[in-house]
Specification:
3% strand; 270 residues
């Protein structure tokens, strides 16, 4: 059964014959392997063109910024999965990625869509500030979180966000989306009643969109970056396992408050 329109039955990403593998119009073996870096190849795969030096530096910076974030839920899920199934590295990586959503790994995409919505609204508003205020008030009215702002640890300034904006300034790619990100930060005390600093999830779409990165592929950046971090954690899990330590710690941290049979005595280790 056909679901939706499928009139265009072609792909422009790759093809091959017995002698040549073609990726985005280029000879993979003859032009790309050993000649470009992986970040360049990623941009080429997405857009069909190689990035400029400025675009390459900005994308590289965002990938480096979020590849590693400690023992966050996605890492714990991956390490405990590998502990339970040590033969399934791919399953452990998948376990760490499957939780990508509005709280973990998905905030960059949500913030990018917020900035794009403000950019679109500005076409009919008197100013960018007016457009931002209108969109933010709509978010609050709908009880939607403002993505890309606030951090449980970096209360003042997220050092990663500061560095990404510095890279954008150095590469002269900083533009409209960075301006929108700053305006939103200025307006948040008025809209939500307290200041919230731009975090790395807000900085990433601001600098990437200004550099020409496609909005629809924003979530791919944290996914790609965090996959690298997960593989590092899973190698360490094989060498210095802590998956079952984390599992045991969770059991100790969470108390049982349900019904018990008559005469049941809790284990003293609980």
């Amino acid at each position: 059964m056909k679901i939706g329109r499928q009139d265009q039955r072609t792909s422009a990403i790759s093809t091959s014959n017995p002698e040549t593998i073609v990726v985005r119009g280029r000879d993979l073996a003859g032009e790309l392997i050993g000649s470009i870096g992986f970040t360049e190849h990623f941009w080429l795969l997405l857009t069909g063109s190689l990035p400029s030096p400025a675009q390459l530096r900005v994308l590289d910076a965002t990938l480096v910024a979020i590849a590693e974030h400690g023992l966050v839920p996605s890492v714990q899920a991956a390490r405990m999965t590998l502990a339970a199934a040590p033969e399934a590295l791919q399953g452990a990586v998948a376990a760490g990625i499957l939780g990508c959503g509005s709280v973990v790994l998905g905030a960059s995409e949500a913030a990018g869509r917020l900035f794009a919505e403000i950019q679109a609204r500005a076409a009919t508003a008197n100013s960018l500030r007016e457009a931002a205020l209108a969109v933010l008030r709509e978010y609050r009215s709908a009880k939607r979180a403002i993505p890309g702002y606030g951090h449980p640890l970096h209360k003042g300034r997220d050092p990663r966000a500061l560095r990404l904006f510095a890279v954008a300034a150095q590469t002269q790619t900083s533009g409209r989306h960075a301006e929108i990100a700053g305006i939103v930060e200025q307006l948040l005390p008025e809209v939500v009643g307290r200041p919230l600093a731009l975090n790395v999830s807000g900085a990433i779409p601001a600098v990437l969109l200004d550099a020409g990165y496609p909005l629809q592929a924003l979530k791919g950046v944290p996914l790609l970056a965090r996959t690298a971090g997960l593989v590092a954690h899973l190698l360490e899990e094989q060498q210095r396992p802590i998956g079952f330590v984390m599992s045991h710690a969770a059991g100790q941290a969470i108390a049982y408050d349900g019904d018990v049979p008559a005469g049941f005595v809790p284990d003293q280790d609980d």
